[in-house]
Each structure stands twice: as C-alpha cells, then as structure tokens.
Amino acid sequence: MGTATVLIILLVALPGVWLLRQNLKQSIDERVVNDAVRRRDRVADQLHFERERAALVASRTRLRRLIEQHLDRQLDATGLQDAAGPILQDAQRSSDSTVGVRVLDPAGRCVISTNPRDLNEDESASNLFTRGRDGFFYDLPREVEGQWVADVAVPCASNSGRPLGVVVLTVQNHALRAILSSASGHYESGRYDLVAQSGDDILLVLPTGESPTPQRIKAEASTLFRQATTGGAGLTRQAGDSGRYCLAAFAPVDYEGWVVIAKADEAEAYQPLFWMGVTTLATTAAGMATLILLAWLAAGRMTAPIINVKRAIDQLAGDHHDARVQIDGNDELADLARGFNRMADHLDVSQAALESEIAHRRQTEAKLRDTVGQLEQKTAEMEQFVYTVSHDLKSPLVSQLGFVDCLRESLEDVTNDDARTSLNYIERSAHRLYETVDDLLELSRIGRIPMRLERLALASLIAEVGDEMRPRFDEAGVRLELYDGSASIDADAKRMRQVLENLLTNALKYGSQPSDGSEPVVRVGVEVEGDETRLYVRDNGPGIDPQYHEKVFDLFQRLDTSDEGTGVGLTNVHRVAQVMGGRAWVESQVGRGATFWIALPRSAAGREPLAA
Asked: DSSP secondary structure string, 126-190?
C-alpha cells in the first residue's frame, strides 16, 4: 500500500472520525444542559407548590373573618389566638412538611401562631412581611434543630380587598434539598448548586455539601457563579478548585435571581471521546490493512448507537413517546442509551399524569358549566315569576283602592270614627303594598331589560338627583353635601339615578338623627381607584351592626320594622351593581354612621353586554 493510498485513506477516515467525535461531544454537552434545565424546572415546580399551599391557608374564609374582627376591635388578641389557632393547627397537620404557621397583622406583628413563642413578635422590618404583603416570597433556607426549613409568605386580604396581613408557612426543605442533593444519574462527579446575586456578592442559596447555612461568596472569587448570575442560560468550561476542568450548565429559575448550576468533571464527561482517540491510534499502529478493517468496525459500532439515540430523540420530539433505544453492551454508549430510555420512561409517566389531570379538569369545567347554566335558567325563571306575580297583583290593588274611596264617600254623612280609621289603615296598607309591587317590578326588570351604557359625568348626575331630593332633606333638617369633581363613568343613566335615589332615601331615613346629637349630614362622594370608580353615600346616623352588613341587601330585609320602607331599595342597588359588572357593600359601626358604596368599572371596554 503506497504512501498516496495511505494519505487517501487518512483523508477519508479522519473526517469521519472527527464528525463522530463532534456529534458525541454535542450529545454530551446537551445532556449536561438538559440536566440543569430539568433540575431548574423541578425547583420552580417546588416553589409553585409551596406558594399554592400558603395561598390555600390565606384564603380560608373563617380565618379572614376572625382577623377582620380583630382589626375592627371586635375580638382581642387572646380571643383571636383561641379562635384562629385551631385553624392554623389544622393547616399544619394537613401536610407532613409544614412545621409551623403564623399570621402577621398589617403592622407586621405576629397575632396568630401554632408556636406560642412567636406571638407579638415584631416582624415589620423582615422580608417576610415587606415582600410577603405584596406577593409570594420564599425566604432563604436555614437549618433549625437538625432540619432544613424555609419560610413561605403570601398576602391575606378580605373579599372587599382589605389587607389583613401576611400568612407565613414554615416548611421543611426536604423536597428542594433532595432535588439539588441527589446524584445526576450521569456522572459520579456530578453535582448541583443553587446560587443568586446578592449585592456585590454571590449567594449559594442551598449548598449541597455539609455547610449548615447559605454561603456568601465574593463575585470575583468565582468566575462560574458570576457568569451564571449575569449571563442567563448556557454551558461553559471552567477550572475547578482542584485545577481540573469541569463542564457547567446553568438555568435561571425566574425567582429572586436564583440559578441552578449542573456541574460534571470534564474528563469524566468526555471519557467516550478519549476512548475514541485511543481506538483510532491503536488501529493506526496495527497497520493500514488492519486500520481499514478496525475503522470500519469502530465506525459501525459507534455510529449505530448514536444514530439510534438520535433517531429515538427525533421520534420523541415528534410526540412518539414509545420511542426507545435498543441497548447492546455495557459501555459509555450503552450508558447514553440507558439514560435516554430512563428519560423517556419519566416522560411517559409525566405525560400520563398530565393527561389525567387535563381530563379531570375538563370534567370539572363541564360540570361547572352545567351548574352555571342551571343557575342562570333558575334565575331567569325566578325573575319572570316575580314580574308576572307583581304585575298581576296591581289590578286587585287598584280595585281595592277604588272601593276604599267609594266607602269613604258613603260614610261622609255617617258618624263612625272607627270605620274611617279602618279605611285609612286599609288605604295606607294598600298603598304600601302597591309601592312594594312597583319595587318588585323594577327589580325584575333589572334582569330582563338590556342595559344602555353611556358616558356619564357623575357630578352632573349627582347634582340633578340631589336637587330633586333637597326639599325633603331641608324639611327633615339634614344637610346634604354633593360631589362636584370631574370623574366620569360608562353606565346606564336610568339605573345610576335609581341607585342614587335609593341610597339617598335610605340615608335620609336613618341618618336624620345622629346618636351623638350633632348636626345630621349626608355626603355623596366619588373615589377613583385603579380601573374602578367608587361612589359612596355617607351619613352620621346611628350606624349598623357589622353582623347585618350583608343582610341589609337581602330582599325585604329591614333592620327597623317601624319604618315605612318596602325592603327592596337596597336589593335594587346591589342588583344594579352586579349587572353593571361591579359590587355594592356597606361600612358601618353602631353609633358611627354608615357608608354605602357602589364600585363600577370606569370604562365599558371589554365588558360583556349585560341586562339592566
């Protein structure tokens, strides 16, 4: 075999060997990167899980109601701990990984806790309070009595949006630590770090070694950590503490600048490349004839598994989750195939769980749609029933009032005071029932007649209604103060007029006699909060006990049965607020007057057509 032939063979063989080497190196690099991404996803899933657990505790209706009573001075600190403590203990017992639950009030002081030692602790300057009241905050892990724990903080608010404080769960870090401490399954030298930027330093959030606390490392002392916290996702080659080079892939967690770093010794990771070079040199030394044969065998031996792995990867990427690689032998390529098969198996399990969850959620959504449809049908039937009954009651009432007039004319020449008194009573009762029927008819129309939205200047509308009702206020000796600002809103003018008339009538009725003997005042005002406009009517009358705040909007509910109201006006206010995409509520204490609110979206943009 001549020199030219040898050169030709080398020129043909070496590019093939180089190409195989590059493909194998790329596969190894991708494995390290994918390892970091998978661990990053597991860390993010664990943080999301802890947030959902804390939010579930913060949403408990009974707990929020007790905190509101404490903030309104209806429940002292001891009573709050006695009443709400069992709720927190139940939340702690519901999860083996929860070791403590506490609640910080809006001032940052601990008012409820499963650990009595925490009570009255001032945490207003801590991140748990300052960050937790604005959203989710997962504090740095720490070791307490041999256990790795961390505090999880979420805000707590009432249904009306009133801040109630911060709920803090102290949870064990077994899951998060296991994610970072477990072996990669690829390399004996593999390990994971969770790091974050902290000022000019790098913070090792959850070390995988024996250090009991997060470590603070100077940024200039670790090129790897500095690059991980400033360069996003990627793969790099760095010199380790022992002088040996390692492959390091990093993936941002998207929380507090946390980054997961997956590292492996470069020599161990690239060991298949080393053996490829040894095989090539050995076949060259054995002779060109043997070289040709061994090169062909080596190419077939090494290319086929890689091609099989690549084919399986392509199939897996094309949603063929049953793709697997046939394993022959016990070398590095076989390890690569086994690793791929394990990954595919985990993907199958995750896919099955996801499909089951999707099916369950679809079933739940279908049931919810059926329930909503049934409720809408029942509501429509009830509105039609109220309309029909109310309309049919008017005719006999008109006839009754006509007969009363006839009887009164017949008794003009008869001296019978008892009969006249009875007729007057019948007439007043009939008129009152007629007014109730009218109010019911108006309430039924709210659900049937289409709403006409237009741009309303609230000051003009309030002034118009206030001027019409001012004589009644003057007669009762009540001072009426009206809003004169520039706020405007998209709403139905007729319904807004009705709301104002009902609220002013209610304020005049109950606010004309302040409990402290001061001058009776009724004030109409407007506040703009974000995308919401809030109109209020405030009086300085006797006020309403908080236990009746929701009942006053129920149909026919009157706290004072001696008044002449129908018990429908505030129900109309609540219903109008609902159909215009808003809400209505009352804020009051006994002896401190009452403020009735109606909050509506400032603009009609994006609102579905509603019935008025």
From this structure: SHHHHHHTTS-EEPPPEEETTEEEEEEEEEEE-TT--EEEEEEEEEE-HHHHHHHHS--SS-TT-
* DSSP SS3 for 316: helix
**Inter-residue contact 463 to 576 (CB < 8 Å):** no
In this structure, of 211-220, 329-338, 584-593, the range with the lowest mean pLDDT score is: 211-220
Query: What is the distance in angstroms between the CA of the first residue and the CA of the last residue of the chain?
Result: 98
Q: pLDDT by residue (tens digit) across 168-203?
A: 999 887 777 777 776 555 566 667 777 777 666 666
Cβ atoms within 10 Å, residue 200: 8
Q: CA–CA separation, 552 vs 559, rounded Å?
A: 7
Read off the tokens for 592. 């401190």
Average pLDDT, the chain: 77
Q: Which residues contact 520 (CB under 8 A, 6 or more apart)?
A: 476, 477, 478, 479, 511, 512, 513, 514, 539, 540, 541
Instruction: State how far the Cα of 400 lies from the Cα of 396, in Å rounded to an integer.
Output: 6
* SS3 of residue 243 by DSSP: coil
pLDDT in tens, 553-580: 766 555 554 455 555 778 788 888 888 8
Q: How many CB atoms lie within 10 A of CB 594?
A: 23
